[in-house]
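Q: Got a minute? One more chain.
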Amino acid sequence: MSTAQMTRPPQTLYVSIRRDELRQLKDERDQLQQEVLRLRLHLQAQLEQASDAKPLLC
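A: Always. Here it is, folded:
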């Protein structure tokens, strides 16, 4: 036996945010994006350095 389920349309959630809170969130987002870019460049430099290194013969 199966039970029929009523499907309801998705509900919309409304929130209010102050302008200063929005500005703070945008600033934090920008800082995080800059950090991600810095880390990507650092990782890319490390990978390039590792690929340039010649393996040691034992």
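A: The two ends are 70 Å apart (CA to CA).
Q: Perfect, thanks.
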